[in-house]
């Protein structure tokens, strides 16, 4: 079996563009050449790498397995090019990041804009979710997760410690005992979370899903809320109940699959985000 690097380049372009036309445009070649090289690669491997669907080219099981290896080869080729030609080679291709909505909105957006200006060839794909992305299935290349024990097979860097604080509407009187907690749907977990706060004796008045809805209830004076410092400290419609009290969240991690460690564009993006968040450690901790 003989593999041609140019065939692998076509494979990667098809995975990223999901169509022969998009892959041809990316590679600067013709639609027919893309299809011909894909056929040559599938013949060499004796495997169908894509399902042809109305939505475009979708990886099959063998295609998924080849993807990781092809990306590793791409990274090695890039390393050779960079070593010989210097550090001016343009980084290109997609990088997929998933992070909680509040982290994206109140912390990461300016960083992502700065990164895009610096590396216009890298196409950032961002998923705003609290759920754990499956890095094994490539739902994301990088994930910011809050966990005591991230998956052992993932490559992780511990981010600075994030803190929550207790907030109330800017027009409210913090000593007003009628203001109960704006809590989470899981009452037991929320009670455990507020047990060590100075206001643990106040009742839970609201159980609302999602930080944005909880924050809006606090803004409207419906109660007091335990919110991330990156969120509450930037909001002009709320203030801290206690200026000095903060509480650490679960440990924050920047995670990626170990097979992507040598993919240059992922490494560059991960280093950039890690450095930027580290410089803002006082902000994320609410100091």
From TrEMBL:
One of its GO terms (molecular function) is sequence-specific DNA binding. Pfam families: HTH_1, LysR_substrate. InterPro entries: LysR-type_TF_proteobact-type, LysR_HTH_N, LysR_subst-bd, WH-like_DNA-bd_sf, WH_DNA-bd_sf. It comes from Marivita hallyeonensis. This is Transcriptional regulator, LysR family. Transmembrane segments: none annotated. Belongs to the LysR transcriptional regulatory family. Residues 3-60 form the HTH lysR-type domain. GO terms for biological process: DNA-templated transcription. Keywords: DNA-binding, Transcription, Transcription regulation.
């Amino acid at each position: 079996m003989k593999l041609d690097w140019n065939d692998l380049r076509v494979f990667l372009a098809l995975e990223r563009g999901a169509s022969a036309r998009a892959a041809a445009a990316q590679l600067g070649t013709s639609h027919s050449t893309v299809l011909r090289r894909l056929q040559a690669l599938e013949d060499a491997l004796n495997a169908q790498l894509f399902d042809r669907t109305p939505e475009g080219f979708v990886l099959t099981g063998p295609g998924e397995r080849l993807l990781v290896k092809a990306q590793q080869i791409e990274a090695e080729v890039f390393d050779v090019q960079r070593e010989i030609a210097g550090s001016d080679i343009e980084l290109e291709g997609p990088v997929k990041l998933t992070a909680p909505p509040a982290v994206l909105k109140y912390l990461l957006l300016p960083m992502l804009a700065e990164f895009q200006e610096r590396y216009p060839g890298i196409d950032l794909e961002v998923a705003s979710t609290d759920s754990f992305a499956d890095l094994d299935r490539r739902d994301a290349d990088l994930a910011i997760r809050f966990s005591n024990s991230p998956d052992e097979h993932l490559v992780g860097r511990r981010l600075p410690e994030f803190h929550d604080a207790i907030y109330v509407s800017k027009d409210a009187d913090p000593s007003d005992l009628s203001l109960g907690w704006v809590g989470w749907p899981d009452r037991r977990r929320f009670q455990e979370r507020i047990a060590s706060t100075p206001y643990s004796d106040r009742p839970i008045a609201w159980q609302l899903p999602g930080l944005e809805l909880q924050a809006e209830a606090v803004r409207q004076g419906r109660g007091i809320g335990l919110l991330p410092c990156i969120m509450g400290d930037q909001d002009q419609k709320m203030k801290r109940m206690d200026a000095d009290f903060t509480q650490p969240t679960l440990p924050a991690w920047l995670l990626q699959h170990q097979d992507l460690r040598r993919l240059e564009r992922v490494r560059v993006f991960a280093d950039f985000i890690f450095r930027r968040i580290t410089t803002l450690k006082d902000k994320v901790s609410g100091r």
